[in-house]
Amino acid sequence: MTSLSASGYEAIAIPVTFPTGNLPGGKRSKLLQEKREFTRVEFETAIQVSTDQLSITSSRMRNISLGGLFVYTSEPVPKGAECVVNIELIGPTTLLRIRVEGEVVRVEEDGVAVRFTGMDTDSLIHLKHLVTINAADPEKIRREYFEDLLAIEPASGDS
Questions:
Q1: What does the alpha-carbon distance between residue 146 and residue 29 come to, in Å, rounded to a whole number?
Q2: What are 11's strand-pairing partners?
Q3: Residue 150 to residues 93, 98, 102, 145: CA-CA distances in angstroms?
Q4: 125 in Cβ contact with 107 (< 8 Å)
């Protein structure tokens, strides 16, 4: 799936759970070796979750991470439903939108948990920034982004 980025160029969808195979040199991503939980942060903004059957809008999230989010809703959303999530970031003079593809992985009485499955490059960068500035440990988010999400090992001497 491709979309038009904020800069006007076509952006290639990046699956959040990549890589799905072996890395160069026969290494395997940590995402393939273990179930990975990303650091969750609290954040509130306008959010829309759309499936083939419905579209819900909410301003309340329990939390968000590099790998997914929990949104409060009273609407019934089926577990396993593929969805598109639009998260609006409103600044003093601009409106940015993070657009991600996802899957509903858990349904609770007060909302749904969505695992991110893909997003364009602009959305990935905005999501990383959103989580980093709201995290108690921004360095941990950096490690999760590079080492776990992108499966890039730090250069020698980096932490």
A1: 11
A2: 3
A3: 31, 18, 17, 6
A4: no
Q: Report the distance separating Cα 133 and Cα 68, nearest Å.
A: 17
* DSSP type of residue 155: P
CA-CA-CA-CA torsion sign (6, 130, 149, 83): negative
Q: Which of 29, 74, 77, 24 is nearest to 51 (CA)?
A: 77
| Structural domains of the chain, ranges and CATH numbers in brackets | 2-149 (2.40.10.220)
Which position has the token pair 């393939």? 32
* Residue range 109-153, pLDDT digits in tens: 999 999 999 999 999 999 999 999 999 999 999 999 988 888 776
| pLDDT tens digits along 25-76 | 444 444 433 455 899 999 989 899 999 999 999 989 999 999 999 999 999 8
Q: What is the dihedral of CA 136, 120, 60, 41, to 10 degrees?
A: -10
Pick from 67, 58, 49, 55: nearest CA to 131: 67
Helix (H) or strand (E) holding 126: helix 121-134
